[in-house]
Amino acid sequence: MDQQNRAKRRVAASRPVTKLRARSAAGVREIFQRFQAANPEPKGELEYVNAFTLLVAVVLSAQATDVGVNKATRKLFELADSPQKMLALGEERVRELVKTIGLFRTKAKNVIALCEKLIAEFGGEVPISREALESLPGVGRKTANVVLNIAFGEITHAVDTHVFRVSNRLRIAPGKNVLQVELGLEKAVPPEFGRHAHHWLILHGRYTCKALRPECERCLLNDLCDSPDKRVT
């Protein structure tokens, strides 16, 4: 039954609203004005101490919860907060520390490999470019976007399952895949809201606009939402 429920959640989370047109610019601005009023300084929920540990945390977070990643990385980052220290721990020790996280063997291998590349090619520093970040083992477009946004203050739109769902339901940036949604958000989100946009969307999707049972009765955007998934109480 748990497997069936997880499968249903994945399907619901990834179902795009392709029949609805994108919301007007004024409508999108109203949404982000409300997000800002309710939570002026939204934060990601992964714990980190510098750009390197943020990068590692995001790599570890693929197909895992932030809560689960944080439990594993607290001890890991106490021992290793730089590529040099992480390499000194070694893959076996890293694997042991993150074994509670899904796909931990592959992730531990990637963490060690990206540390080697950071030292060999980037002087042990996290690079400030999408191309360079995506050249690192275990780092894809979403991970690069998160690091660029949080560590370096760039306006990027990291699209996870929550951002994908909310962007479609609210017609901010309807799309059939994550890249379409990301590019749509780049065009739709007013620049003054760009830095925090993906945090607002993630938090809204995680705690209110949930995949199977969205909590529409307490949603600050209830009157603006015309999604087929909207629950009428």
Automatic annotation (TrEMBL):
Cofactor note as given: Binds 1 [4Fe-4S] cluster.
Record keywords: 4Fe-4S, DNA damage, DNA repair, DNA-binding, Endonuclease, Glycosidase, Hydrolase, Iron, Iron-sulfur, Lyase, Metal-binding, Nuclease
MF GO annotations: 4 iron, 4 sulfur cluster binding; class I DNA-(apurinic or apyrimidinic site) endonuclease activity; DNA binding; DNA N-glycosylase activity; metal ion binding
EC number(s) from the headed UniProt entry: 4.2.99.18
Top-rank lineage group of the source organism: Bacteria
Residue span(s) of domain HhH-GPD: 60-207
Top EC category: lyase
Positions of [4Fe-4S] cluster binding: 209, 216, 219, 225
Cofactor(s) essential for the protein: [4Fe-4S] cluster
Residues making up the signal peptide according to the UniProt record: none
An annotated GO BP: base-excision repair, AP site formation
Pfam (any one): HhH-GPD
PROSITE patterns: ENDONUCLEASE_III_2
Family as reported in the entry's similarity comment: Belongs to the Nth/MutY family.
Role: DNA repair enzyme that has both DNA N-glycosylase activity and AP-lyase activity. The DNA N-glycosylase activity releases various damaged pyrimidines from DNA by cleaving the N-glycosidic bond, leaving an AP (apurinic/apyrimidinic) site. The AP-lyase activity cleaves the phosphodiester bond 3' to the AP site by a beta-elimination, leaving a 3'-terminal unsaturated sugar and a product with a terminal 5'-phosphate.
Protein name stated in the entry: Endonuclease III
Species: Bosea lathyri
Source species taxonomy: Bacteria, Pseudomonadati, Pseudomonadota, Alphaproteobacteria, Hyphomicrobiales
Gene designation per UniProt: nth
